[in-house]
Design a protein that fits this description.
Shape: globular
Number of strands: 19
Strand content: 15-25%
CATH topology of the largest domain: TIM Barrel
CATH architecture of the largest domain: Alpha-Beta Barrel
Number of helices: 15
Structural class: alpha/beta
Largest sheet: 9 strands, mixed
Length: 459
């Protein structure tokens, strides 16, 4: 079955560039984008009309509805979904031991895990998260169940069993028994996810972070990554406490320790990384690893603001992460707002006792275009997935956002708003209720609740 979608297409192919087109997007039966026709030219208009006529499924979005790429959330702790919005007054180490580890231990219960996954995945999809990079718990069955839920609901996902075995960094009742057991369970989890044979879901090797892992586990997981080529994710240089711990234990910084263990690799996702030095950013770029920037949870736990502009300047890949539940937003559009806000605080500084010249970090601010690029093409590049932009050769992961939903917050004024202003309003103000359609791999995964001008087949 082929699909053609027409409407106003807005996307960010570069951190400093917004493009807008009256377009028809052609999608083949595999979910791949085969053509994007710009209807501003006679040739494009004719080709677009032919594509609409030939498609077995056609969606023509109303002028008040925009077509955008789907969102790529680079950092989600899936088991923490039930604690979303709680415990954020605590320091990180207390939050883990008092809230997070007790909750994650409950995922030994298959029915509990399945119920959480079947609530979380559709909710995130409804908010436009078409790709999710998940930490599961350390339970093999729960991790496989999460991968299965993503496949069933139609979300593109990287799913990782959390490996953790350090007797001082984890509770006795929630850890791998030995380093060897943790490596073996991670290897079996890779096999279990691969055995689902879903085109949407892949495994990812997941050492929680260095304080939770012994040297043997870190080394074994690095060797597993080398042997399998499977992506890696972990927390990196997140907080003062985390960085101090690494120096005391390893005699070097956290990212350099990860590199020693073979975990700083192409497609490695380094969550947070607020405290990376310029050299370490360049090292991550050299290894073709990237950062999951989590601006809201960093504000609670990281003691710093990640320097997005500086990272991009040295070639480090950067995407956005919600960091559920350390970040209390279940969708990336809100996280885009947070990323813009904290960048302004980094540039201007926050301590009024210091003079303006000493207070901030110059040239740190980003705008909504850059933030949305991080949430789409930037994140897709870090994990090397063919999504994040609507262009030929990529998969059709997309969302449609309505500008005129009754009761919605988005207002547009014909005499005031140009395309750039409308785009900024969408990024800052749209909610899941404004998202009328979501597609993953060319398949509708959120029923269209609002009328469009012509559809051959109901979503």
């Amino acid at each position: 079955m082929t699909l053609a979608v027409s409407g106003t297409l807005m996307q960010t192919p570069a951190p400093d560039r917004l493009t807008v087109a009256d377009a028809v997007v052609e999608v083949d039966s595999t979910g791949a984008i085969t053509a994007v026709h710009d209807r501003s030219t006679p040739e494009g208009a004719a080709a677009g009309q032919s594509a609409l006529a030939a498609a077995s499924e056609r969606v023509e979005l109303a002028p008040s509805t925009l077509l955008l790429p789907g969102l790529v959330d680079m950092h989600i702790h899936a088991p923490q979904w039930p604690q979303l919005g709680t415990g954020l007054d605590l320091p990180l180490e207390r939050w883990l031991f008092e809230y997070t580890f007790p909750l994650e231990a409950r995922y030994a219960d298959h029915d509990f895990a399945a119920a959480v996954w079947d609530d979380m995945v559709p909710t995130l999809l409804a908010g436009g998260t078409t790709t999710a990079v998940y930490y599961s718990s350390n339970h093999l069955d729960a991790t496989t169940s999460l991968a299965r839920a993503c496949a069933r609901h139609g979300q593109r996902a990287l799913v990782g069993r959390v490996a953790m075995d350090h007797p001082e960094g984890t509770p006795a009742w929630y850890r791998d028994a030995t380093a060897a057991a943790g490596v073996d369970a991670s290897a079996r989890s890779i096999e279990a996810v691969a055995a689902l044979r879903s085109p949407l879901v892949e495994p990812i090797i997941t050492p929680r972070f260095t304080p939770a892992c012994t040297d043997g586990l870190l080394q074994g997981l690095g060797e597993l990554a080398e042997a399998t080529g499977v992506r890696v994710q972990t927390h990196c240089a997140e907080s003062d406490w985390h960085c101090g711990y690494a120096i005391e234990r390893f005699g070097t910084s956290d990212p350099r320790a990860l590199d020693r263990f073979g975990l700083l690799r192409p497609r490695t996702v380094l969550a947070h990384s607020d405290h990376l030095t310029d050299f370490e950013m360049a090292m991550a770029a050299d290894r073709r690893a990237g950062v999951a920037h989590c601006p809201l949870s960093n504000s609670y736990f990281a003691n710093a603001v990640f320097r997005v502009r500086q990272a991009l300047a040295v070639g480090t890949g950067v995407g956005l992460g919600s960091d559920i539940a350390g970040g209390a937003r279940p969708g990336l559009l809100g996280v885009c707002q947070d990323a813009v806000t904290v960048s302004r605080m980094l540039e201007d500084g926050v301590d009024p006792a210091l003079g303006p010249a000493q207070r901030g970090v110059p040239d740190s601010r980003i705008d909504t275009v850059t933030a949305f690029w991080l949430a789409t093409a930037g994140g897709a590049s870090v994990v090397d997935l063919p999504v994040g932009l609507i262009e030929p050769g990529r998969r059709f992961d997309a969302m449609a956002v309505r500008l005129d939903r009754p009761g919605g917050l988005i207002r547009t004024w014909e005499s005031i708003d140009d395309d750039a202003r409308i785009f900024e309003k969408v990024v800052r103000l749209a909610t899941a209720d404004d998202i009328s359609h979501v597609w993953v791999d060319g398949t509708s995964v959120k029923p269209g609740r609002f009328p469009v001008r012509d559809r051959r087949r109901q979503h």
